[in-house]
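To make this tangible, this section ends with a sequence with its structure tokens:
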Amino acid sequence: MKKHYVTIGMIAILLVGCQKESDSRPQKQAKIEKKVVLDIRNPKVEIASEFEELAKVYEKENPEIDIRIRTVGGAADDYSDLKAELASGRGPDIFTNTGYGNAETWRPYLEDLSKERWIKDAYPGTLDAIKMDGNVYGMPMNLEGYGFIYNKQLFQRAGIEQVPETLSELKKAASTLEQKGITPFATGYYEDWKLGVHLLNVAFARQKDPDAFIKKLNAGEMQIPDNPLFSDVIDLLDVTLEYGNADPLTTDYNMEVDLFTKEKAAMILQGNWIQPMIDERAPDLDVAFMPIPINDEPTDQLVVSVPNYWVVNKKADSSDKKEAKQFLNWMVSSEKGQTFITERFKFIPVFKNIKTDDLGPLAKETIAAYKKGNTLDANWSGFPAGVKEEFGSAMQMYVGKQLTRQQLLREFQLSWNRAREAQE
């Protein structure tokens, strides 16, 4: 996804929400001598235009604020550029962090947000990943779930009545779809995060104790090639390649979703975050989630987690930090901000003061799984920094037949070792 800058009114609304508590800011100014400019790094390309609209609303209500948004995602969603910007003092005022080990790595740039008003409204456990020494350094963006999203009408057309819960059942369903002239999988493997983050995470999530497994990997007491679940994930990858669209390595995020929404493919490995894209491109599409089976042990669990936390740049000017905090508070406390979160972004909120109505079928299933506790964890926030990208690159090489299965498993271990040693 291409990176772009837009000057927006996002901050305008935040400050208005804060006026209810303080009259220190005049509602109207005859003359604005100097504007505060907030730079925001948005990692959600799915809501790029909606986020910009929100900013315009905020700017309109707060003419003393300018917001510049840089939206990144997909292949561009790495942190190398952010590292360089922060190191040079040109970093954004608001960006995102996935928490846990990533929060530790970026701690010098994370402002303490422990005294912000939204803390008391966060659902239990949603702040854990961004807590260090008892302090909170980020505001949870939303709750997300992912798995295989499937087109219910295409499944019915192919005569598939049971949602697959094992890899054998999934392969049988794919074969049935193909026989009916329907491409089973949309495979956008140009995006390394689909492979090295979402797909490979399932091997970690299906461990009996994922945290203990990661600790043993870090201690050198476990080796990835010796764990059968990683080979199982490659088995699933092989099925998607056998029954997927042509040229997966040149199929990007947008193209992949386009294949699915145009009913040129029956399944896509994605999450509830693509609901706005589905609503825009194919509002009548009847979709639902299925789990991600990697072997013949039945599963009905979705992966559900807080994917990102909004953080404030500790190195920013004091005025920018103040306005950034006010904006984040406004986004989750004001009526307009909440409306954008639920109705426009289709986010599953993590704050109990935000009411949810119809967020779409994918969000509904995610919420149901979360409430039942019938979920798998997203474990990548506990990975050593940089390893996800190496996982993804290695899996792309496997897709391109540049690595064998055993070589890929070995690359996983080598990548983990390098990333772990770099942190020591």
User: Anything to note?
Assistant: Residues 405-423 form the longest helix (19 residues). Residues 14 and 59 are 9 Å apart (CA to CA). The first strand starts at residue 4 and ends at 8.
